[in-house]
Amino acid sequence: MIAKTHQRGWEIIYQKAHGLLAMEFGLHWETAQRPPRFAETLAAILEHDDGLNDTEVHALTDVGAPLHFELLEYTIEQCRSVTHLTRQKSRWTALMVSLHMSFLYEEKRGQDAELAAFLEEQKAWQRRYLRELGIKREVAQRAYEFLEWCDAFSLLLCQDKIQMEQRKMEISNGPDGTVHQVWQRDDGSLCVEPWPFAVDHFEVSVESRIIEQLKFDSTDELRTALETTDPIENRWRLRK
């Protein structure tokens, strides 16, 4: 989960909600620049962080605060779960998520043997998917970079990282290698340069929950607080 301090306590965004926001950006992408198997790619964007519910794992810091996802140790169980679930949808969706697992964890390869074995399994699955689908690796990699771009933009918004005073910040490289930047106008709308979307303006949203309790004795207690809190909707307007 994405955990942020708030003047009333904590603001929490579930990883699945972040995935939904990421998919919204993909859904608006310029039609001529969309990757192959577009619907399956959108499914991969939506589910790239699924596998375990945010509060099924230990979700607290040592002092009982909600644990931000960047502080959460990876688990092979979650990695295997998300790759297994996507295989039940389509090989292309599974390929995209497998590439995401490689992107996230290859740099950690030397940490333990179980992770190394998982990464080798992903390489084998990727070769198999490419062969069976008749897809060149470069084509799949460009499609994955589309997923990664949508993921990166969603995380910027969910973590409130957009800069003030119209300062530009990099989102990520698009699937064609173009570096995209985002900045906020005085009216609050966001502009992405160069503009990669099919329409000149649209809105996106993500739900979050404000919990006033600062410290929790258990993950179950945090789960109960989240489940009994009504969500609020955070909205952004994007225009060219």
Task: Give a verbal description of the structure.
With 240 residues, the chain is an alpha+beta fold. It has one domain (2-239). The protein is 42% helix and 18% strand. The strands form two sheets. The protein has a four-stranded antiparallel sheet. A three-stranded antiparallel sheet has the order 3-4-5, covered by helices on one side. Helix 1 packs antiparallel against helix 2, helix 3 packs antiparallel against helix 4 and helix 4 crosses helix 6.
Key descriptive features of the protein:
single chain; 42% helix; 240 residues; 4-stranded antiparallel sheet
How many DSSP H or I helices? 7
The main pleated sheet reads as: 4 strands, antiparallel
Mean residue pLDDT: 92
Assembly context of the chains: single chain
Kindly give the count of domains.
1
Low-confidence parts, pLDDT < 50 over ≥5 residues? none
Distance between the termini: 31 Å
Quote the beta fraction. Answer: 15-25%
Number of strands: 7
Please list the strands of the largest sheet in the order they lie side by side. Answer: 1-2-6-7
**Order of H and E elements:** EEHHHHHHEEEEHE
* SS-derived structural category: alpha+beta
What order do the helices and strands come in, and which of them pair?
Layout: E1 2-6, E2 9-13, H1 15-27, H2 38-47, H3 76-87, H4 91-105, H5 113-133, H6 137-158, E3 169-173, E4 179-184, E5 190-193, E6 201-211, H7 219-227, E7 232-239
Antiparallel strand pairs: 1-2, 2-6, 3-4, 4-5, 6-7
Helix pairs in contact: 1-2, 1-6, 2-4, 2-6, 3-4, 4-5, 4-6
